[in-house]
Amino acid sequence: MAAAEEKEKVNANGVPLFKHAVTKLDSEMDKEVIYEFGGPVGVCAMMLGFPSLMYYFWVCLEYHQGKLITPASYSIEGIQSFVFNDIIQKVITGAFPHFLAVKIYMGFVLYSAVCAYTLPGPVIEGLGLPSLKGKKLKYLCNGLTYWYLTLFLSAVFHYTGIFRLTLIAENFGSIMSVAIIWGFTMSTLVYVISGIMGKHHRMSGNFFYDFFMGACLNPRIGHLDLKMWAETRVPWPVLFYISVSCALKQYETKGYISAPAAFMVLAHFLYVNACQKGEECIITSWDIFYEKDGFMLMFWNMAGVPFTYCMSSVYLMKYEQSTGITISHSLPYTIFLFTVLLVGYYVFDTGNSQKNRFRMEQNGSFMTRNAFPQLPWGHIKNPSYIRTEHGNLLLTSGWWGIARKPHYTADLMMSISWGLITGFGSFLPYFYFCFFVCVLTHRVSRDMERCAKKYGKDWDRYCERVPYIFIPYVF
Ligand code: NDP
């Protein structure tokens, strides 16, 4: 009833303000432990599998022009020789985490944390957290200042020779090793310290599963929210700089930057720019509101995202270095892919923005920012929505009137373009797309289940009103 009364307060855009009073169901769902990802066995396989796969891919890129290598024989000796001689030996010699790699990667991690702590930016309230009895945490959103400062400093450092950005591509394997070690170290530190401080939340009781999913919901050092920082400030900028580094390496050796290399720089620029300019929107996202800060998020953000999503850029560079041939395509094919990327980006940006700004309006935390680019249709005027008994509103205007996950479709469009721009010589540039299809399909089923439980018959009404998930009239 209290929620119903609050709904009467409507802002200038016609969106009712809802103070996110935590319901009994919210609290129950927030505490509920469900084994996902195959439970303890599945998560152990992933914790061992992620780094192994990253090293395997690295060997394929570094020594085999991106071809997927296999053992010469499937006998025990053949497999042993493959693992030790073809993988481990090469990793030890070619991807050793030497001091320069530590300085580059950890220097950036530290720099980004100091920026996140100190730079100016608006302070935005998150959603009311069931585990804190509805309390809203505050987030210092200085991502944009950090991003512009980083672009400026990196350009100055590169051109003055203080830090040549090509060093990243030259030491790629070693920097990746440092990132992998840091991913494990940070997950362990946060897990142990959360335990010491008694900040456990939604624990299953199985050590491996809890380590993977995390112990603490919102680990913080002062006002620095570690989960928010790890989601936005490290993975995407590192990914962008890997692509910049590969393109500069090409420029250094060939004297030009090819269209595919420029495409990858643009693609990664758009992604990282979107994360920084729309940082305040991320606060209402599922990762920040619900997921704990465990190995899954930390390792993937610190190591997995930058060092597997970059394979298109690294492949283009390595292929050229080992064959002397620059990958290029016909003009119509290139224009087509730039169009796919930009259209995908437009829907991704405006789709996320439409929903998150709508949620911020309900939360009373909506603000306009002059971050570039503010695309048309990013904020819906007088939106239509479905009222739920829970109190939350479900948006049915804009892209959200056309499909239930329009931003996933757009993200997938971009990811396939990252592969297609490299041609068809290797599977590795397509790994991101394949992996992402699995991630998003899994996320959709988790999310739909959660929403069906949370909103009951109102969710059914919403699904009737917006029947398609990804593509209207198709699926
Ligand atoms: P979503 O943006 O899909 O958020 C899901 C939540 O939004 C739901 O649980 C529900 O929350 C709320 N919601 C759903 N439909 C509506 C609606 N019509 N109106 C209002 N609220 C609604 O979550 P993600 O965090 O998965 O995705 C955000 C972006 O991040 C996407 O673009 C995705 O592609 C991208 N992403 C990228 C990854 C990468 O590795 N590149 C990985 C994961 C995501 P509630 O219960 O509070 O109502």
TrEMBL record:
<keyword id="KW-0443">Lipid metabolism</keyword>
<feature type="transmembrane region" description="Helical">
    <location>
        <begin position="33"/>
        <end position="58"/>
    </location>
</feature>
<dbReference type="InterPro" id="IPR001171">
    <property type="entry name" value="ERG24_DHCR-like"/>
</dbReference>
<keyword id="KW-0472">Membrane</keyword>
<dbReference type="GO" id="GO:0006696">
    <property type="term" value="P:ergosterol biosynthetic process"/>
</dbReference>
<comment type="similarity">
    <text>Belongs to the ERG4/ERG24 family.</text>
</comment>
<keyword id="KW-0753">Steroid metabolism</keyword>
<dbReference type="GO" id="GO:0005789">
    <property type="term" value="C:endoplasmic reticulum membrane"/>
</dbReference>
<keyword id="KW-0521">NADP</keyword>
<keyword id="KW-0444">Lipid biosynthesis</keyword>
<keyword id="KW-0256">Endoplasmic reticulum</keyword>
<keyword id="KW-0560">Oxidoreductase</keyword>
<dbReference type="GO" id="GO:0000246">
    <property type="term" value="F:Delta24(24-1) sterol reductase activity"/>
</dbReference>
<keyword id="KW-1207">Sterol metabolism</keyword>
<keyword id="KW-0812">Transmembrane</keyword>
<keyword id="KW-1133">Transmembrane helix</keyword>
<feature type="transmembrane region" description="Helical">
    <location>
        <begin position="329"/>
        <end position="348"/>
    </location>
</feature>
<feature type="transmembrane region" description="Helical">
    <location>
        <begin position="139"/>
        <end position="160"/>
    </location>
</feature>
<feature type="transmembrane region" description="Helical">
    <location>
        <begin position="172"/>
        <end position="193"/>
    </location>
</feature>
<dbReference type="InterPro" id="IPR018083">
    <property type="entry name" value="Sterol_reductase_CS"/>
</dbReference>
<protein>
    <recommendedName>
        <fullName>Delta(24(24(1)))-sterol reductase</fullName>
        <ecNumber>1.3.1.71</ecNumber>
    </recommendedName>
</protein>
<feature type="transmembrane region" description="Helical">
    <location>
        <begin position="294"/>
        <end position="317"/>
    </location>
</feature>
<keyword id="KW-0756">Sterol biosynthesis</keyword>
<feature type="transmembrane region" description="Helical">
    <location>
        <begin position="255"/>
        <end position="274"/>
    </location>
</feature>
<feature type="transmembrane region" description="Helical">
    <location>
        <begin position="416"/>
        <end position="440"/>
    </location>
</feature>
<feature type="transmembrane region" description="Helical">
    <location>
        <begin position="104"/>
        <end position="127"/>
    </location>
</feature>
<dbReference type="Pfam" id="PF01222">
    <property type="entry name" value="ERG4_ERG24"/>
</dbReference>
<comment type="pathway">
    <text>Steroid metabolism; ergosterol biosynthesis.</text>
</comment>
<keyword id="KW-0752">Steroid biosynthesis</keyword>
